[in-house]
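Workshop exercise sheet. Pairs work together: one partner reads the sequence aloud, the other fills in the structure field after running the prediction. Swap roles for the next sheet.
Pair: D.N. / O.F.
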Amino acid sequence: MKINNLINWKLFGILFFIGVLSFFAVLPYILTLQADIIKDLPISLPLALLLSTIQTSVLLVVTIFLGLTLSKKNGFSLPLLENMLAGRNMMGKLKAQSLLSIKLGALVGVLIIIFDYFFSFFIEPFKVVDVAIWKSFLGSFYGGIFEEILLRLFFLSLLIWIFSKVWKTSDGKLQTSIIWAGIIIAAVVFGLGHLPATALLTDLTPLVVIRAILLNSIGGIVFGWLYWKRGLVSAMMAHFTADITILIILPVLIGFF
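Structure field:
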């Protein structure tokens, strides 16, 4: 098979481009959140940023290529982007898809806020880091784009592909149980992936770990379902909306009242 036929390279280029942009977008947020760690770095900040950019770029190249390859093998697609690249008018589809994704993303954000409130009765208060609204807004693109490329396009696709090899069906179709198993596992890993950031704000007790897994799994399951049923763009929009709800709308409402 020719390399040109392996994946949709235009789609690869778009995902890589927005993935790199999302990395740069989150930097002001990260530099604020990790200010104490950054000042003690053994290398200069510009060099650290350069190395992080190279590392992120390599990670994106690998995960996007494998993600597109595996999703194709699983019978998944990125319908919105693929049809737009093919020159088809997708405005009607985009509006309907955006509405569903925004609604589900907002619901995820509200549910996380509610559950987090109940956890606050049993967990010591987290260290408060004052982050400007504009930094939180830019940082939300990282969650919506980069994390969805990594967790849904790549990792979820990888899990489903592995499961499909182990539990084969006679007709060769994917079992719904296999897809759901992948969605749930990816959601748990999504929660575990937030523990390093949580560790900057509080001690990692068993309850804190459970909180991180539970709260982030709420989003992970919804985003995984959207990726499966509607495509990666829907998962990205819902994730972005959830982050906006938690990082921007909630603090603004708290400040208002």
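Discussion prompt: The chain has a mean pLDDT of 88. What would you look at next?
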